[in-house]
Design goal:
Blueprint: H1 3-23, H2 36-39, H3 44-51, H4 78-84, E1 92-97, E2 104-105, E3 117-118, H5 119-129, E4 131-137, E5 147-155, H6 156-162, E6 165-167, E7 171-176, E8 187-191, H7 192-196, E9 206-211, E10 214-215, E11 225-227, E12 240-246, E13 269-274, E14 278-279, E15 285-293, E16 300-307, E17 324-325, E18 327-328, E19 367-375, E20 381-390, E21 413-418
């Protein structure tokens, strides 16, 4: 089996396991505790379901893992990780010019000449350049986020400028440790303009060393990984070891395999977390879910219930269906964010948060929100529940990019029975 086929098989397995858990009428996943402020002011029927939602920030041991490698680098022994530079004490980052399509730089950073960036050097840069931002980490090809957290690091542009690039600089290639086998190297890339300038009010691309205030673990790509705020996970390379500045104008991403669109930013979409699989006739039904907030932002979450098999014909995106607005839940109060952060509070200085630790804008892009609704009682029968988002431009999911290879946006359907 080719590496890509094996990887996609693993993606499918993770997705099936996730939705099997959701379909089992679980009212809370990931082991999150009650978020009482989300339940404030809701009807009694919704209180219990909403209070059992997972915490907004994902606990570190609850992040789902999508990693490549044979063996997976984070599974290496401590001794081996020391040997190959996957500890904070031994990590080194080389920044060089592409030999085939060179960018002119004055000061490459290499291990051979003793100028490669080490972890103490990165921490020295962090004293004046460190940034923190919230981001949902999600994969291009599966329909559930891997986790949401506060990622901290030094902007990649700070390190690139240390090499003193002069001209012929069009793209940044980068890759991490993959067992020193060329066939296992997992690569990604970005336009130079995105790395050097924080376009469209985006947070910077960072060399990340902390998640939720704690040092990045090997499982999360430590000691250092790239994190690209608006991008899918394949752009946020783990176990970073090499950056190459190139005059080549096209992407070299490993994810080009499988016909993937490697320049797509995160999409906005909704999914259901809890709906009882079976209820009594005329009994009101509490439903909860989440929405991933992508590059286009989020204006609404909507739901639609119809008797099974009565969907409109010749309407693949259900544009003519009778959609109803759900309630987008407010952000947690200070001290209720979860994610193993000290006192469950947002760290001071996190981008897009004010001094009190509350979001400046809600919903936040590149993050998630929870939503809830209480369905009216229904007569006996089989039903299908669907949910969708409407972004800030008025595009209803799966628009404006309904194509699977540019990221998941399919409208989810969940069946339930009224007896």
């Amino acid at each position: 089996m080719r590496d890509f086929d094996r990887f996609m098989r693993d993606h499918d397995l993770v997705t099936r396991r996730f939705f099997m858990r959701v379909g089992a009428a679980s009212l809370g996943i990931f082991g999150g505790g009650a978020i009482q402020s989300w339940a404030d002011g809701l009807s009694p029927e919704l209180n219990e379901a909403v209070a059992k939602l997972e915490s907004y920030m994902t606990p570190l041991d609850k992040f789902r893992d999508i990693s490549r490698g044979s063996p997976v680098p984070h599974s290496l022994s401590e001794e081996k990780r020391i040997e190959v530079g996957l500890t904070r004490e031994t990590w080194r980052l080389e920044v060089t010019a592409d030999l085939d399509h060179p960018t002119r730089i004055k000061q490459p950073l290499t291990i051979a000449d003793g100028t490669a960036l080490d972890f103490p050097g990165l921490m020295e840069l962090a004293k004046t350049h460190a940034v923190k931002f919230a981001k949902v980490m999600t994969c291009l090809n599966i329909g559930c986020p891997l986790g949401t957290g506060i990622w901290e690091g030094v902007p990649l542009k700070v390190v690139i400028w240390k090499t003193q690039p002069i001209e012929n600089f069009r793209r940044v290639f980068y890759y991490g440790f993959h067992n020193n086998e060329p066939k296992q190297i997992f690569r990604s890339s970005l336009p130079a303009g995105r790395v050097l300038e924080d376009l469209y009010d985006l947070p910077p691309v960072i060399l990340c060393y902390k998640l939720n205030g704690q040092w990045l673990s090997p499982e999360r790509g430590g000691p250092v990984r790239v994190v690209v705020p608006e991008a899918y996970g394949f752009k946020s390379i783990k176990w970073l070891s090499h950056i190459v500045l190139t005059n080549l104008a096209v992407a070299n991403d490993t994810y080009i395999e499988g016909n993937n669109d490697v320049d797509s930013p995160l999409k906005t979409f909704a999914a259901t977390l809890s709906v009882p699989p079976s209820v009594s006739a005329n009994q009101r039904i509490p439903v909860t879910g989440y929405a991933q907030v992508g590059i286009s932002g989020l204006k609404k979450v909507q739901f639609w219930v119809c008797p099974k098999g009565t969907e409109p014909t010749n309407d693949p995106h259900f544009v003519t269906a009778n959609w109803t607005d759900a309630t987008i839940l407010p952000p947690p109060k200070s001290g209720e964010w979860g994610g193993d952060m000290p006192d469950s509070k947002i760290p001071a200085g996190t981008l897009e948060f004010d001094d009190s630790g509350l979001p400046k804008v809600w919903p936040m892009r590149f993050s998630k929100v929870h939503w809830a609704t209480l369905l009216d009682g229904l007569p006996v029968g089989e039903y299908t529940l669907r949910s969708r988002t409407v972004d800030e431009k008025g595009h209803a999911q799966p628009m404006p990019r309904p194509f699977r290879k540019s990221g998941h946006a399919e409208i989810e359907q969940v069946g339930f029975v009224v007896k």
